């Protein structure tokens, strides 16, 4: 389900509940009103609230069973929170000043240093479904936010019971789709407390959030150390997810559980090196491949007059549907190490139209010039646009990818590969990436001066037409394929070409491949162990760090309606006992709260301004 559709359904449910509640209460429907009062249900526009007294006795029991621990824990919380209030205010102020200093002016060109600096996300950034939050991440974020809020309010409740303040009730609240918790404390009892016991209650929620964020951060860093018995690392980047509209999909494309080990001669050991290899290929010019002379002489389909296309790529092949030329054919340019004056000494045409997979299956070496190739080999690089790269991705298949038949030279002319355009696939089905992928993608785009559009002219060389692909439907005629494996024991007449036929060929922007293929460092040691479990648990831990840390930060600053306001008011009253009159105390409270509220509001505006439609994949038709 598209995330916008899901949000529309949630809005419809809220409106329906509010209208129904209003009608039933207006009609004095007694059974309904009894149920609402029993549940403590309050329905407002796009807001639901439920409260109960069921936990009052249990809270008192927990408080009295561990009196010394709770007393020490709450006292330590007061000291930590008071020590962090001033640094939190300076941190938020720095965030605003830094954004004002680094925000690009209209005269700044894309790719400038100011533009690169502005790509860094602000300290506080709103989570907006459909912009920087995908539907896959939404359940995790909602659950972690709810747990963080419950732990925050549990701190207030336990501290209140410990200090002799009765809890009037606890409950849950839903603001549209955002869940939260709350505790009802009698205001008269709170006002009658001395300053330090009152601070224990007010700081308990913030302190619990700080502790939760610290534990989650520690667990996220220790998980790799604890995973050595279940997972192995350093063998490559393990594919854990391929987005539905990724050009890397296809019968000869990537599969979940494939181990990526090389990209155009760049070794891949883990997810970091996978990203670095894609960035290297993105920044550098298209690399060549050492193709045997025999392959060129037997498979060349070059037309007489080559032409330069609009993208800057040389076109030396007939149209894809022309006779004897399949859509897998590419125009390869000869990379020589001789000067232009000696170009006539090279014994071959500067451009050759070759079937990409058949040519590269005999080309194990990546090169930048013919001198780097073995004897009787030429360094040929596909002529692609400035925004494209031809990537050969070496992988160790762990799925059924090895079952896809290889095509021999005899059938290369009849082999037709269908184009896979990313812009068409993204129409109406936008794929949202995680914040980490989006951040790295922005860094990639920034380093090439915003010249790349990862959704332009991308196609896969790994998709065969459905009537010819045995992996897409059952009952296909397998006899029309010539297999490289001739015997049951796996022997073949072409040992060198066999592993290269397992390679994935990708033509397009490396940024789109980076965006739509999710990889992991952890390879399960046993087939019963879940793939990507470590990353998922780390992601949950980092969600707790984000939400619990954000709750702590916003409740430390004296913002109206938050814990910080009441903490600041208590500190002002405590410090002004016997020194200031009530009017001065009231003015000081108002000024401090106004400054803190303005600071929070400015940081939220900075976060909103950093969001744009370009953060999500573009929608084209």
UniProtKB/TrEMBL annotation:
It catalyses: Cleaves several transcription factors that are type-2 transmembrane proteins within membrane-spanning domains. Known substrates include sterol regulatory element-binding protein (SREBP) -1, SREBP-2 and forms of the transcriptional activator ATF6. SREBP-2 is cleaved at the site 477-DRSRILL-|-CVLTFLCLSFNPLTSLLQWGGA-505. The residues Asn-Pro, 11 residues distal to the site of cleavage in the membrane-spanning domain, are important for cleavage by S2P endopeptidase. Replacement of either of these residues does not prevent cleavage, but there is no cleavage if both of these residues are replaced. Signal peptide: none annotated. InterPro entries: MBTPS2 (IPR001193), PDZ_sf (IPR036034), Peptidase_M50 (IPR008915). One of its GO terms (cellular component) is endomembrane system. It comes from the Eukaryota. Keywords: Hydrolase, Membrane, Protease, Transmembrane, Transmembrane helix. Its EC number is 3.4.24.85. It is an enzyme of class 3 (hydrolase). Residues 141-579 form the Peptidase M50 domain. The chain crosses the membrane at residues 6-24, 68-94, 165-185, 205-223, 591-613. One of its GO terms (biological process) is membrane protein intracellular domain proteolysis. It is found in: Endomembrane system. One of its GO terms (molecular function) is metalloendopeptidase activity. SUPFAM superfamilies: PDZ domain-like. The keyword Membrane applies. It is a multi-pass membrane protein. Zinc metalloprotease that mediates intramembrane proteolysis of proteins such as ATF6, ATF6B, SREBF1/SREBP1 and SREBF2/SREBP2. Catalyzes the second step in the proteolytic activation of the sterol regulatory element-binding proteins (SREBPs) SREBF1/SREBP1 and SREBF2/SREBP2: cleaves SREBPs within the first transmembrane segment, thereby releasing the N-terminal segment with a portion of the transmembrane segment attached. Mature N-terminal SREBP fragments shuttle to the nucleus and activate gene transcription. Belongs to the peptidase M50A family. This is Membrane-bound transcription factor site-2 protease. It comes from Hyalella azteca (Amphipod).
């Amino acid at each position: 389900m598209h995330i916008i559709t899901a949000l529309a359904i949630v809005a419809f449910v809220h409106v329906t509940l509010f209208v129904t509640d209003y009608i039933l209460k207006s009609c004095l429907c007694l059974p309904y009103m009894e149920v609402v009062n029993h549940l403590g249900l309050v329905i407002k526009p796009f807001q639901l609230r439920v409260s109960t007294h069921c936990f009052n006795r249990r809270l008192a029991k927990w408080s009295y069973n561990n009196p010394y621990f709770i007393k020490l824990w709450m006292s330590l919380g007061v000291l930590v929170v008071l020590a962090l209030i001033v640094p939190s205010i300076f941190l938020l102020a720095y965030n605003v000043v830094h954004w004002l200093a680094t925000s690009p002016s209209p005269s700044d060109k894309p790719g400038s240093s100011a533009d690169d600096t502005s790509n860094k996300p602000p300290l506080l950034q709103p989570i907006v479904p459909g912009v920087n939050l995908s539907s896959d991440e939404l359940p995790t974020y909602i659950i972690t936010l709810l747990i963080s809020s419950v732990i925050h309010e549990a701190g207030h409740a336990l501290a209140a019971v410990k200090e002799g303040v009765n809890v009037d009730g606890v409950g849950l609240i839903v603001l549209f789709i955002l869940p939260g918790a709350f505790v009802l404390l009698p205001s008269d009892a709170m006002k009658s407390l001395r300053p330090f016991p009152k601070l224990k209650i007010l700081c308990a929620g913030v302190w619990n959030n700080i502790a939760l964020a610290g534990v989650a951060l520690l667990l996220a860093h220790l998980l790799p150390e604890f995973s050595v018995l279940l997972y192995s690392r350093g063998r490559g980047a393990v594919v854990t997810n391929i987005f539905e509209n990724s050009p890397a999909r296809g019968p000869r494309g990537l599969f979940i559980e494939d181990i990526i080990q090389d990209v155009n001669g760049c070794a891949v050991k883990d997810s970091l090196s996978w990203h670095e290899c894609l960035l290297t290929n993105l920044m550098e010019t298209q690399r060549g491949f050492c193709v045997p002379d025999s392959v060129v002489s037997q498979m060349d389909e070059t037309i007489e007059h080559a032409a330069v296309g609009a993208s800057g790529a040389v076109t030396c092949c007939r149209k894809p549907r022309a006779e004897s030329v399949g859509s897998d054919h590419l125009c390869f340019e000869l990379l020589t190490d001789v000067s232009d004056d000696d170009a006539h000494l090279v014994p071959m045409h500067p451009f050759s139209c070759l079937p990409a997979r058949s040519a590269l299956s005999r080309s194990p070496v990546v090169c930048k010039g013919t001198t780097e190739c073995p004897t009787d080999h030429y360094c040929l690089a596909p002529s692609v646009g400035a925004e494209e790269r031809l990537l050969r991705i070496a992988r160790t298949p762990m799925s059924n990818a090895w079952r896809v038949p290889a095509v021999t030279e005899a059938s290369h002319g009849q082999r037709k590969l269908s184009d896979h355009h990313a812009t068409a696939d993204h129409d109406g089905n936008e794929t949202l990436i995680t914040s980490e992928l989006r951040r790295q993608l922005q860094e990639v785009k920034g380093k090439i001066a915003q010249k790349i559009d990862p959704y332009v002219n991308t196609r896969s060389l790994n998709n065969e037409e459905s009537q010819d692909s045995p992996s897409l439907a059952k009952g296909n005629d397998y006899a029309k394929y010539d297999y490289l494996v001739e015997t049951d024991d796996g022997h073949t007449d072409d040992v060198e070409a066999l592993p290269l036929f397992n390679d994935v060929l990708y033509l397009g922007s490396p940024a789109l491949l980076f965006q739509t293929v999710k990889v992991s460092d952890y390879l399960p040691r046993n087939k019963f162990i879940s793939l990507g479990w470590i990353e998922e648990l780390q992601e949950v831990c980092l969600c707790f760090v984000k939400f619990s840390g954000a709750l702590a930060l916003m409740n430390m600053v004296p913002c109206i309606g938050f814990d910080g306001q009441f903490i600041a008011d208590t500190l002002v009253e405590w410090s002004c006992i016997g020194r200031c009159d009530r009017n001065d105390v009231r003015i000081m409270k108002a000024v401090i709260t106004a400054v803190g509220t303005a600071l929070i509001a400015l940081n939220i505006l900075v976060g909103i301004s950093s969001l744009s439609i370009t953060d999500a994949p573009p929608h084209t038709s």
